[in-house]
Amino acid sequence: MGTTNHITTKWLGKMAFESTNPSGHQLRIDASPDDGGEGSGFRPKALMLSGLAGCSGLDVAMLIKKMKLEVDDFQIETIANLTEEHPKYYDGVVVEYHFYGSNLNEAKLQRAVDLSVEKYCGVMEMFRRFAKLEIKMVFHTL
C-alpha cells in the first residue's frame, strides 16, 4: 500500500474553510463575494493549478541544482480552461515555464522540464487523466 495524505479541512463559518496540510501549514479556502464568500482565501480549483505548478516547479528546481544550471529566475504560468457545464472542471491546461538568465542552457532546461512532465510530477499525471496538457518553454535572455 502506498503513502496516504490526511488533510483536515474545518469550516470557519459562511463560505470559509481552513485546511491543514501534512506539513503543519494551514491555508484558507473561501468563495468569491459573488458566490457568498468574502474572497478571503484560495479558490479550490485555482489551488489545483498551484499544486500542479508547485509539483513540477519543485522537480525543475531540483534538476537545475543537480545539473548545475545557471538560472537567475524561473516562473510557471498556468492557464486553464474551465468547462461550461456543471460540474465544471479543467479540460485544457497550458503550462508555461519561463526561465530568465544571461547564460541559459536551453537544451538542459528543456530536459529538466521533460523529466518533470513525463516522469516525476505526480500532479501532472493526475491532470493528464482529465485535461489536455500543453507544455511551453519561454527563455528570457538577460
TrEMBL record:
| InterPro entries linked to this entry | KH_dom-like_a/b (IPR015946), OsmC/Ohr_fam (IPR003718), OsmC/Ohrsf (IPR036102)
| Record's protein name | OsmC family protein
Species lineage:
Bacteria, Pseudomonadati, Bacteroidota, Flavobacteriia, Flavobacteriales
